Amino acid sequence: METAEKNLKKIYQQAKECPITIFMDQIGGKWKPVIIWLLLLNEVMRFSELDKAIAGISQKMLSQQLKDLEKIKIVKRKSYPVIPPKVEYRLTEKGKSLKENLTLIMEWSRKNLS
Q: DSSP letter at 16?
C-alpha cells in the first residue's frame, strides 16, 4: 500500500470525516448532480425548464434541491419582480469548478456501468 493510501486510511477512520462523505452529503444524491450538469450545459435555466428537463422530480423536491445548492453557494438564484414570477438559476464559480470532476465521473460511468 502506498504511503498516501496509508495516511488516508489513518486520517479517515470514521466515514463522516472523509471528504468524499462530505461531498456526497452536500452534492450527491439522485437530483443535485443532474441539476448541476444541466446548469453546466445551459448556463441559465428557469425553474420550469429544470422541472421539464428532469423526469420524475416533483416541484417540491426540485425546489428543495435548488435551495440546498444555493445554501452551499453552488447555485445562484435570481428572481425578477414580474407577474407571473420569473426565477432563473445559474452556477456560481464554485459550481462551475465541478465541471471537470463531473465530466470524469460521466466518462467513467459510460465505460464501467450499464
A: G
**35 C-beta neighbours (distance < 10 Å), count:** 26
What CATH number has the domain spanning 31-112?
A: 1.10.10.10
Q: For 62-79, what is each residue's pLDDT tens digit?
A: 999 999 999 999 999 999
How far is 94 from 104, CA to CA, in rounded Å?
A: 17
CA angle 65, 69, 75 (to 5 degrees): 120
Looking at the DSSP bridge assignments, the partners of residue 46 are 88
- Rg over alpha carbons for the chain, rounded to the nearest Å, is 17
Any residues with CB less than 8 A from the CB of 9 and at least 6 apart, and which? 1
